[in-house]
Amino acid sequence: MKLVSKIIICLFVWFLFIKIVHSQTTNLIPIKINGIYGYADDSMIIIIKPSFQDAYMFTGELARVKFKNKFGFINYSGKFQIPTIYDDATDFDGWGIATAKKKNDWIMIDKKGNLYNGVVPIDDGVHSSISEGNPGYYKNSNGKIGYIGTIYIDSANFKTDTIIKANYDEIKFQYTDRLFLVKQNNKYGFLSFKGDTLVPIIYDSIIQIGWDFNSNRNIGYKLYQNNLVGIFIHKENKIITPKYKNIISFNGQYARVLTKDNNEIYVSKNNTEFILKNINK
Q1: Which of 133, 138, 185, 257 is the least crowded, having the fewest Cβ atoms under 10 Å away?
Q2: What are the residues facing 134 on neighbouring strands?
Q3: What value does the mean pLDDT take over residues 73-79?
Q4: What is the pLDDT of residues 135-192, one digit of tens each?
């Protein structure tokens, strides 16, 4: 009798072991039975008993579920890793971050349910951040703004993951040029889509010049500094030094400018100046 009991216990333990291993190595998918959600494996064998109002795919070893009108996250065994205490939530992304909502406030959490690095997402009409699997813009306890997200570079869907530390007062992504226009200490500059500095954050303002229909991007940006103006040519990654009173015209290679002495001259993308000569006919 003792032998039979031992065999039964061993079989039971083995069954649990296989179930746990199976659940952790199989892609579990949400299923709906009689209006209640659970999870099954690829063979449609139920692994996590249906008990949720709603259920989503596993991302980063956790799945978002809705239970008693609140959102939380379960692991592969069906146990709550993060309790259902949120009014809304997004899935975890590749950085192990999810956004979650309590009452009217959104926060960023890690896989343990802790506040992610003390920062919160923002959605103020300029810095939009509440989107599935992409936290986007966020701010820290000092009110400084950063960015965490995936940026698509071209039509071939080449993409890169970008993390910009929360060091800025404003961040605005220029979609056509894949640049971040940033403001820091009342000065402006540009970061690349990877977060590297392209234009130093030293200018009083930056304004788009015009549109190049051949390349479908901006021709350049006016850089204002100490009441003078220059040009940032993104395509060439060059800067015409801000030392002119006005930019009269610019074709992507040469700018017609007004000097501090009120003379009209041309200046190249390499900062070479050409004097305009009057031609008498």
Answers
A1: 185
A2: none
A3: 95
A4: 477 777 788 888 876 665 554 455 566 778 888 998 888 777 788 999 999 999 999 8
Q: Determine the pLDDT at residue 257.
A: 94
89-124, pLDDT tens digit by residue? 988 876 677 888 888 777 778 899 887 755 555 554
| Residue 69 neighbours by CB distance under 10 Å | 8
Dist. CA 130–CA 124, nearest whole Å: 10
Taken as a whole, the chain contains a residue count of 281
Strand 29-33 relative to strand 217-225, pairing: unpaired
Amino acid 26: pLDDT:
55
**DSSP string of the chain, one letter each residue:** -HHHHHHHHHHHHHHHHHHHHHHHHS--EEEEETTEEEEE-TT--EEEEEEESEEEEEETTEEEEEETTEEEEE-TTS-EEEEEEESEE----TTS-EEEEETTEEEEE-TTS-BGGG-EE--SSSS----TT--EEEE-TT--EEEEEEEE-STT--EEEEEEEEEESEEEEETTTTEEEEEETTEEEEE-TTS-EEEEEEESEEEEEEEETTTTEEEEEEEEETTEEEEEETTTTEEEEEEESEEEEE-SSEEEEE-TTS-EEEEETTS-EEE------
Six token digits for residue 184 = 């820091």
> Whole-angstrom Cα distance, residue 112 to residue 169?
29
Side-chain half-sphere CA neighbours of 71 within 13 A: 20
Q: pLDDT per residue over 18-58, tens digit each?
A: 455 444 445 899 999 999 999 999 889 999 999 999 999 99
Q: What CA dihedral angle connects 36, 37, 38 and 39, to 10 degrees?
A: 150
